[in-house]
Amino acid sequence: MEAGVVFCVVAVFAWGLAVIPIKKANRSPLAGLAVGLISGWALMLLVAALRNELDFSGMEAKGWGLTAAGGILRFPVATYCYYQAILRAGILLATPLARLRPVFVCLIVTAAGLEVPGGGVIAGTALAFAGTLFLFPRRTDVAVAGRPLPRDVRRSGLLLAGAASLAWALGDICLNQVSSDAAAVPASVRSVLALGFGTVAWLGLLLVLGKLPMVGKLGWSGCGWYALHGVMSFGIATYSMLRAFETLPVTEVSLLTSVWPLVSMAVGFLLFRERVSGRQALGLAFLVAGAAAVLI
C-alpha cells in the first residue's frame, strides 16, 4: 500500500476518535481549543526535536504565508466551528455537512487551476456529495440522548458545520502548496509552524475578547480531555495529513480522509446514544465508495 494512503488511514482514525474527548469535556470550546492547540503544537515540537528536524531555513517567504493561512483557517477557524456544531447539535448532525470538504477542495483547485482532477477524483467527489446528502438527517431523525433538537439549534449547527467544512478545505489547499517541497521542510516542521500560527492567532483573539482567563476555569478534567483531543486531532492527524500531501494530490487526500465520519458516527452511536438511521448508513457507504474510487 502506498505510504500516502497509510498516512490517510492514520488521520481518519485520529480525527474520528477525537470526538470522544470533545464530548467528554463538555466545557467552553473557546478555552478548550486553546488547550488543544497548545497540546498538538507541543507534541509536534517534541517530534521535530527528537528527529533533529527543527530547521526553518528551508522555508521560503511564500511558504511562511501559506503555512500561516493554512494553520489559521484549519485550526482555530474550522475547528472552533466544528466544536460548536457538535456541542449544539450532536455528532450525527455535525459530521455530515463537514463532509463537504472534498467537494469544496475539488471545486476550488479546479477553478484556481491548481490541479486537473482525474476521473477517479471526479467520481469520488460526486459520490462524496451524494453521501453527504444521505448522511444529512431529517429533522425527525435527529436526537441527542433520545430528545429531538429544536429548530434553531439544528439550524445553527448546520451553519457552523458548513463553515468548518469550507475553512478546512481552504486550509488544506494552502498547506498542500507548502508540502510540495518536503525535502527542504520536513512534515514535523510544517506541523509545528502551522499549529504555531493557529495557536498564536487563537490566543490573541481570546486576549482581545477578554476570554483568556476561561482557560483556567476548565479544571483538570476539562484540560485533560481537550489536551487529548489536541494530541489526536492537531498532532497525530495533522502530521499524517502533511505526510500524505507529499505523495498524493490534495483532492485525493481529502477524499481518502473523508471517511472519518464512519468512525465518529460509530462512536456517537455506541457511546453517546445518538441514533443512526438507515439513510445515514447509506450515506456512509457512498463516502467509502468515493474514497475507493481514488484507489481504483
Itemize the secondary structure elements and their pairings.
Blueprint: H1 3-17, H2 19-25, H3 29-50, H4 61-89, H5 91-98, H6 101-111, H7 119-135, E1 143-144, E2 147-148, H8 151-179, H9 187-209, H10 219-245, H11 250-256, H12 260-272, H13 278-295
Antiparallel strand pairs: 1-2
Describe the overall structure.
With 296 residues, this protein is mostly helical. The protein has one domain (3-26, 57-185, 232-295). Helices cover 76% and strands 1% of the residues. The protein is built from 13 helices and 2 strands; from the N terminus they run αααααααββαααααα. The chain has helices spanning 3-17, 19-25, 29-50, 61-89, 91-98, 101-111, 119-135, 151-179, 187-209, 219-245, 250-256, 260-272, 278-295, and strands spanning 143-144, 147-148. A two-stranded antiparallel ribbon has the order 1-2. A hairpin with a 2-residue loop joins strand 1 (143-144) and strand 2. The protein is globular and about 50 Å long. It starts with a helix and ends with a helix.
Question: Brief description of this entry?
Answer:
With 296 residues, the chain is mostly helical. The protein contains 13 helices and two strands.
